Amino acid sequence: MTSHEPIESYFARWQRLNDWLVQHQTIWKPAPFIEPLPAWALRYPELACAVAALTDAECDELDDNPEALARLASHYVPQLALRGQLVNLPELSPEPAGIMAATLPEVRAKDMPGRKREQAGAFVASLAPFQQSIVDWCCGKGYLSRTLAARSQQSVEGYEWNPALVAGGNQLALHFDDAVKIHCQNVMAKNLSIPANTHGVALHACGDLHRQLLKRGAAAALPRLSLSPCCYHLTADGYHQALSKRTAAYKNRLTPERNDLRLAIRETVTAPARVREQTRLLSQWRLGFDGLQRSLRGVDEYLPVPSYSPRLIHKGFPAFCQWAAGKKQLRLPENTDFDRWLTYGALRYRDVRRYELVRHLFRRPLELWMVLDYAVFLEEQGYQVRIGHFCPRSLTPRNLLLDAVRACDTPLVQHSHP
Fold first, then answer.
1. pLDDT-based confidence at 6, cuts 50/70/90?
2. Dist. CA 188–CA 237, nearest whole Å
3. pTM for the complete prediction?
4. Topology of 96-265+363-406 in CATH?
5. What secondary structure letter does DSSP report for 152?
6. Beta-sheet strand order (sheet of 400-406)
């Protein structure tokens, strides 16, 4: 850091967060689901014992309360106490009345899930006032587009690649007389043209899709870019490719791969109890099959298995094992003791649940590390940037808002884009 660098600049924040993540990557990089005994458990045996003693209810409570979890873990790894300081961000959403005013009434939110309706309302409320016409990036059926049109009094163009969603969204806009027009558009297309002097927005656009908005929007010198990123691991590169010249040049820069990036979004705080129970059961089955396949092959390594539909849970654990074995060209013996491996999976899941708990401390830090890279990139392109929460974590864990307003006519750093 140079002497004239403001202590709270986004690059300074990124640098401190980067160094902290690098320092502790032996804790968060190993996946306990794959490695039965993570190396950190041997390095910090007291922490491993502390989490091993937690009840299932205590695990659930701590997983939903990262601050309390950090306090517990910092008794054994003192540097983890810095987590709260490193991820602290302002609340950008207005008072509840302002959010309510920006949220589409239920009678106008046809086919719109309640949680999505509330997320869109909180997102839009955090961006008001609006001064330009709007481009809604990866807009789906236009739920956010219609919320924006109602609140901003600006015309909204939506970009969506799925023709069925485009048709359905335009029908809804026409029915409710909203100033919204959705176009069938692949936003990754090289010949994409973004209307000049528009405000580009994206609520939970995934991976390369939201990065494309940042790159193309900055290259087009759009006056404002506002997004809440999601699914950072969905990238053609297979790893996080820094957008900022400054972060890319940092010698001690973290280099997370796709599996590392998945950690940033592994939260089920908004999932219904039924979904959580299905996830728990399928995890136990996968771990049970993992023990079975290691024994059968005589090779102590994890075999990744494709997704298994929760709708097939009623078929039971033996059917799951037969399915998984088929996917890996394995033949299960007729005398396979499925009860033994089901019990093994339940016991492994208990350990994994507790080791993962410690790893989950790094979900938001890793996510913010990426978003701060985006912020520094936008500053390099001549934007004034703010980062904060647009809604409570209970509404969606993906509640980060990156809002950038162009402050000059010429980018400070030239970047190429595909």
1. very low
2. 14
3. 0.91
4. Rossmann fold (3.40.50)
5. H
6. 180-184, 156-160, 134-137, 199-206, 224-230, 400-406, 383-389
